[in-house]
Design brief:
5 helices, 27% helix, 30s Ribosomal Protein S18, mainly alpha
């Protein structure tokens, strides 16, 4: 390419494509994948880990604190795993392991049955 198309002379000797104002500057730097795919298939998100935010791998809260039995009477603990509408939050969002998610679900259902937690919000 010539100097007129890029606006400046290439410094490395390799011609670089001209960018227009509508496309992002880093779009040409991405490697492989579908255009606009976003995740790149990596847990950190972004192409090559160059994303804006670093998503930390979720670790089970109960495993780290070595909580074996989840008490159904501990409403404050259980409310953190229930959404505003009363739904149990899935483990992919909370980061709880499979065994503790099952115990947590059982504890939430027990607390609902004895009226410690609401089944749903009042509308």
């Amino acid at each position: 390419m010539s100097e007129e198309t890029t606006g400046k002379a290439p410094e490395t000797g390799v011609a670089q494509p001209a960018t227009t104002g509508s496309e992002p500057a880093a779009a040409g730097a991405r490697s492989g994948g579908r255009p606009g795919a976003g995740g790149g298939g990596r847990p950190g998100g972004g192409a090559g880990g160059r994303g804006k935010f670093f998503r930390r791998k979720k670790v089970c809260k109960f495993c780290t604190e070595k909580i074996d039995a989840i008490p159904y009477r501990d409403v404050r603990l259980l409310q953190g795993f229930v959404a505003e509408r009363g739904k149990i939050v899935p483990r992919r969002l909370t980061g709880v392991c499979t065994t503790h998610q099952r115990r947590l679900t059982r504890a939430i259902k027990q607390a609902r049955n004895i009226a410690l937690l609401p089944f749903a919000t009042r509308h």
